[in-house]
Amino acid sequence: MKSLIEIQTEVQNIIREYPEEYQRFKALQDAGYTDLHYTYVKNIGIGRIQYLKRKNIYRLQVAPTELKKNYPAAWVVDISDSNVDSYAELPF
Asked: Based on the number of CB atoms within 10 Å of its own CB, is 86 exposed (0-12), middle (13-18) or buried (19 or more)?
């Protein structure tokens, strides 16, 4: 089980290493991040994390934000909070 910091670092390294989206999505799936989908976001930014309390998931944005029907949308990876080590020390 990885900490949130480790997951964010790994995803950001994949984003930097693969500028083309198709290769990036393939690399994310190879790394075990299989819940990849296109959805509306709250302008969190590429490589950033947002916690959704009602769904109990961490949402990592892996592609730039685009407008879809005048609302921001992007490709994201959802990670269940039960798969994240919450006991790791956070830097803030």
From this structure: exposed
The answer to whether position 36 is within a domain reads yes
Cβ distance 65 to 74 under 8 Å? Answer: yes
Backbone angles phi, psi at 53, to 5 degrees: -60, -45
Secondary structure letter of residue 20 according to DSSP: S
State how many domains the chain has: 1
Q: Is residue 88 part of a domain?
A: no
Question: Cα(88)–Cα(59) distance, rounded to whole angstroms?
Answer: 18
- pLDDT digit of tens for each residue in the chain (92 aa)? 788 888 889 999 999 999 998 999 999 999 998 889 999 998 778 988 888 889 989 999 999 999 999 999 999 999 888 877 765 555 55
Range of the domain at 38: 2-83
Q: Buried (b) or exposed (e) across 39-72, using 16+ Cβ within 10 A?
A: eebeebeebebeeeeeeebbbbbbbebeeeeeee
